[in-house]
Amino acid sequence: MDAVALERLIMLALEEDAASADLTAQATVARDQQGCATISVKADGVLSGVLVAQRVFAAVDARIEQLWSRHDGDVVLCGDSVATFSGPLRALLSAERTALNFLQHLSGIATATQAFVVAVQGTHCSIVDTRKTTPGLRYLEKQAVRHGGGVNHRMDLREGMLIKENHIVAAGSIAAAIQACRELQQATSGSGNAPLWVEVECETPDEVREAVAAVPDIILLDNMTPNQVCAARAWVPAGMLLEASGNITLANARVYAETGIDRIAIGAITHSTAALDVSMRVEVGVDNTETHKADASNA
Questions:
Q1: Residue 155 shares a structural domain with residue 193
Q2: Domain shared by 51 and 175, yes or no
Q3: Is 61 considered catalytic here?
Q4: Higher pLDDT, residue 135 or 1
Q5: Domain that holds residue 50
Q6: What burial class does residue 228 get, using C-beta atoms within 10 Å of its C-beta: 0-12 exposed, 13-18 middle, 19+ buried?
Q7: Is 134 found in the same domain as 78?
Q8: Which residue has the higher pLDDT, 70 or 297?
Q9: Each residue of 11-33: pLDDT tens digit?
Q10: Which of 74, 150, 197, 224 lies in disulfide reach of 70, CB 3.0 to 4.6 Å?
Q11: CB count in 10 Å sphere of residue 232
Q12: 181-223 pLDDT, tens per residue?
């Protein structure tokens, strides 16, 4: 994510929480009171959002000293300490919720992604995300997918052409929609940008046959059974990427992967994943960043 855009996002989040006007901290913590804090995870998972959390604390008060012993993409176990802090206690408390919101949400996505990646391990299949993301958080959420071992699908509507049912209705047929996208692909091929790919969503075996004849780059099999996917794999040429989505869960992901599919798209890893449980605890008058310096240097 662009550094300027990330800073803007962090400032919006801090403004939303009124971090600069924390009444409870003002009432209970002396202005010059110093303290320390530790962030720990309360469940097994994969960490994501460390960089964002770091910048949240720095944005609230640059005097906060941070020592992160775990990093984005690290596997963490319940009870692990991932970071320690020391500095103005008011600032630590005012930054806490915003930092943890990013960290727990993004770590939840990384954790869910890894579960799917592990489920299909040893097959040819990759786990990819979708554009079903939280508005404003797409870059971070897709980064969290990568931290979990997944692969990003297109980042936005400029990165490729995915023909879905409504596009097919508008164009008149699958073949017409693919042809229209190919024409735009050819028209923009010399623009200096990365070559655009054309993908088409198919919901029935007949639609798959029609799509194969029109030669897209990728065929997306939507809401098909493993048997239907297996049959489609036999019809679709090896050079044409085959993707499946819809009603695919951890329980059946491997069954789909073993059909020979190239990748499985899972919208749930970004749009409905539970957060990883993360908490912060403070102490007064103790600098515990020194305690973990040896551990951090070896991490």
A1: yes
A2: no
A3: no
A4: 135
A5: 3-115+274-298
A6: middle
A7: no
A8: 70
A9: 999 999 999 999 999 999 999 99
A10: 74
A11: 24
A12: 999 998 887 666 667 899 999 999 999 999 999 999 999 999 9
Distance CA 42, CA 37 (A): 16
Which entry of 97, 131, 146, 233 is annotated as an active-site residue? 97
- Total number of domains in the chain: 2
Helix residue spans in the chain (DSSP H): 3-16, 23-28, 50-60, 89-119, 138-147, 165-171, 174-187, 205-214, 226-235, 253-257, 268-271, 293-298
* Tokens encoding 163: 């023909």
Q: Which one is catalytic: 222, 258, 277, 287?
A: 222
- Annotated active-site residue 222? The verdict is yes
| CATH code for position 157 | 3.20.20.70
**What tokens does 37 get?**
């804090």
Q: In terms of Cα–Cα distance, which of 44, 120, 113 is closest to 272? A: 113
Would you call 142 a catalytic residue per the annotation? no
Determine the residue type at 271: H
| Distance of alpha carbon 274 from alpha carbon 132, whole angstroms | 15
Residues 111 and 232 both lie in one domain: no
164 has catalytic annotation: yes
Closest by Cα among 91, 84, 103, 99 to 39:
84
Which listed residue (131, 132, 209, 233) is catalytic? 132
Question: Per the residue annotation, which of 141, 201, 207, 262 is the catalytic one?
Answer: 201
pLDDT tens-digit series, residues 239-295: 899 999 999 999 999 999 999 999 999 999 999 999 999 999 999 875 555 544 434
Q: Are residues 133 and 105 in the same domain?
A: no
User: 83 — phi, psi (to 5°)?
Assistant: -160, 150
Confidence of residue 4 (pLDDT cuts 50, 70, 90): very high
Q: Residue 222, Cβ neighbours under 10 Å: how many?
A: 17
Q: Of the listed 131, 146, 164, 182, which one is catalytic? A: 164
